[in-house]
Amino acid sequence: MKILFNHADSFEFEATRKALKSAKELREGEKRGQADNALVAFMAVEKPDEGKEDAVAERAVSEAEGILKQVGADVVVIYPYAHLSSNLSSPLVAENILNLVYERFKANGHKTIKAPFGWYKAFKISGKGHPMSELSREIIIEEVEKKGKQEVSEALKAEETMKSSWAILTLDGKMHPISHEKGKIIGFDFSKHPKLEKFARYELAKSREVDKEPPHVRLMRKLELVDYEPASDPGNLRYYPKGRLIKSLLEDYVTREIKDYGAMEIEAPIMYDLEHPSLKKYLNRFPARQYTIDTPNKRVFLRFAACFGQFLMAHDATISYKNLPMRLYEMTRYSFRVEKRGELTGLRRLRSFTMPDCHAFVSDFDMAKEEMLKRFEVADRVLSKSGIDRKGLAMGLRLVKDFYTEHKDFVHTLIKKWGKPVLVEMWDSRFFYFVMKYEWNFIDCLDKASALTTDQIDVENAETYDITYVDKDGSEKNPLIMHLSPSGAIERIIYALLENAHMVHEKGGTAELPLWLAPTQVRVVPVTEKNLAYARKIFEAFNRGMIRVDIDDRDLTLGKKIREAASEWVPYIVVVGDNEEKNRRMSVAKRGERGKQKMMKDVDLVKVIKKETAGMPFKSLPLAPELSKRPKFVG
Where are the alpha helices (DSSP H) in 300-400? Predict the structure, then answer.
């Protein structure tokens, strides 16, 4: 449940018409309500609250009681407010919980008013304006996991208890030990590195839970890209046509870059035998929670990365030293991790996600270091072309002390390549299968860090899976294995793009997506119906030029059409009226350049767009080209 509390001088509401057919009929006196010096609780009951009605209601009342004591309100107003959440419960559950909250308040001796459920309502509010007058709360009742339904690896248990030392490694090769004291990071001057400070604070706090909705969740729904799927397990999302287009373009681009780097693309199963000896050992070396399934033949788990399929394939292959480095790659649709309920949020952290995963099998540390530097360049290009500037990221480096001592020069070379200080987590001894890994982290609007690019040097799994290659002298040896995800989960790229767009907007800039990812690149807007025929000719010119173009053929005012195109972040709006038709031109407005319309020929704008999107994948429009023929997916 999500709640927004407002301490109001006065509050009044009026029910106007039914929002739900099932809503009960109201007598005239029930349609209106008014209260002075009121604590107004705007409440949204969510899907996770189902089956926990009593506990949710009790917690909500407890939260409100604490606020009541501090603000001294005379009346409590319970106001159903579905707009606080995109993951609403069924109406029956929601009404039941709100009724329970109402009855508990009354039983506790509070004067209580409940606004009608299932009705559209108008309200007027006069706020108090003091520091406690507006507060938000999220009620989460944790589920008790059923025994045997979730596997928790030994690595995950160890990760929660393992101790490590933290430092900032600067470009001059100096380590600056840091610690977390009273909410501050002590030991380094972060004044020129605010992103790194936020990343360090996030990592040292060890808290992954989110206490409010990040901005990208609203944007992914507003733009009709992605949404929650109430009928699935939490953390499994639905993609609308525009969102699927963006996701598929990113998948195609990342795959192309990895194949150009020299990787061989494969495909492997998504489920594996839980009792397979090599797999079972690896499960306990990787910090992740698994989905498990009882099949007619055996108990299996759903993969959380592409490692299993690629390692088993390498085990069965005949590999020579001449084949090294050998690179295998899969765009895993999908990988699965049972992330904790409180950590799930929008596109940032999911239970089902698409992970580009590339493993390189190398002979020794020298080859591993050379390979890592090459992959660093690949990852940098992938994120940059996807619209994510490396300047806005923070790098984390996790390694074992012995590896750092032996390969200090390489580590410093990598840091210099990054070009700014990095956060280091150092272990005295190795517990995980790797001796070193780096991560490039995006810091979002809530100051939460999310890993995008990651690469690591694995010294254990070749032996675990009995992967060997024949060396020059004819002997069999185990290779080292490198694990690269050049972008992190594809969903996280979209998350980072939306969060970054929000930050740009908050600073007075224009929120937008890279042109090659925009679902509609050009919208043709006829001024009147009589300009529609000419608008269709313009449309065809862009369509032939392989530009994603649509046409607003609806019977709306020109102003409304332009406003809607802007709200959808359409990069180019082309207006055609009598003057444009007469001169065989079009009036072009580029997003972010208000008041700078240009008269252009269609062929000239095609050239501009082609130049800006050169070298990037292209897919056709994901929806009907005429706006009048499109459904609305998000209400």
Answer: 307-316, 365-385
